[in-house]
Amino acid sequence: MTGGFPSPNHGDRRGQRIELVVLHYTGMTDAASARARLCDPEAEVSAHWLIYEAGRAEALIPETRRAWHAGAGSWQGRDDVNSRSIGIEIANPGDRPFAAPQMQALCALLRAIMSRWQLGPEAIIAHSDMAPGRKSDPGPRFDWQGLARQGLALWPGQGPDLPLAPSLDAIGYPAADPATRLAAFRLRFRPWARGPENAADRRAAAALAALTARA
Questions:
Q1: Given CA atoms 28, 29, 34, 40 in this order, what sign does their dihedral have?
Q2: Within 57-171, where are the H helices?
Q3: What gap in Å lies between CA 150 and CA 170, rounded to an integer?
Q4: Residue 174 near residue 76, CB atoms below 8 Å
Q5: pTM for the full predicted model
Q6: CB neighbour list of residue 149: distance below 8 Å, 6 or more residues apart
Q7: What is the mean pLDDT of residues 185-207?
C-alpha cells in the first residue's frame, strides 16, 4: 500500500462516524485515467483508496476525511453516506472480471480498515446497494462470495420464504419501486437471475435479513 493523499477533493465528516465501506468499480479504461479524475478538483469526485490492476492500493485522501464517492442514496435509513463511509475504487471498466491481484489487495485493505474502525462484514456494501437504479457497481462480475468466505462481507444461505419487501427493508435497501429494489438485490446476491421475483429471491433476502439483525 502507498499513500501520499494526492486528491484535493474531500471535506470534514460533518460529525458522523465511519460505519460503512462502499465498493466501486472505476468504470474507466485504466487506473491511471481513474486516478487523474479522482484527483482533479474540477471533477469534484474522489475516493479514499484506488486499487490498481496489478494490485497496488493507493490512498488518495485520509480515511478521517469525507470523500465524494457515494452521491445520492442511503443505507439502513441513513443518508449522507459520504460522511459515514470509506470509499474504495477498483480499477475495472465494468465489463470484465476483477483480477486476482486486485481481489487479494482488496481483502488485505478491508481487513485493515475493518480493524481500524471496528467494522463487521455487514458494513461492506456495493455502490449499487445504496443507490438502486442509479448505480450498478461493482457489478455482477464482482466476487462477493469470495469476500464472504473470508469474513469480509455477508452472503446469504437459504431462509424461509417470506415477503421480499420487509426483508429488503431490514437489510438496508432504500425506498424504490419493487422492480428497482429487486434488481439491486439481485445485482449483488443473485447476479444472473432474471424474470419476476421468485422464491429463491425471497429465501436469500430473508436469510440475509436474519444475518443483518444478528450483526
A1: negative
A2: 81-84, 100-117, 127-130, 144-149, 164-171
A3: 23
A4: no
A5: 0.97
A6: 155
A7: 97
Grade residue 214 by pLDDT with cuts at 50, 70 and 90: confident
Which helix or strand (DSSP H or E) is residue 31 part of? helix 31-38
Matching residue, cell 424461509 = 160
User: Which residue bears the cell 470509506?
Assistant: 86
Question: Residue 67: which of 117, 123, 108, 6 has the closest Cα?
Answer: 6
- The amino acid sitting at 151 is G
Residue 35 predicted with pLDDT over 80: yes
Q: Which cell goes with 77?
A: 435509513
Q: Any catalytic annotation for residue 89?
A: yes
Cell 425471497 identifies what position?
202
Of the residues 19, 53, 58, 89, only one is catalytic, namely 89
Give CA–CA dist 195/202, Å, rounded. Answer: 14
Cis omega before residue 138 (within 30°)? yes
Distance CA 25, CA 21 (A): 13
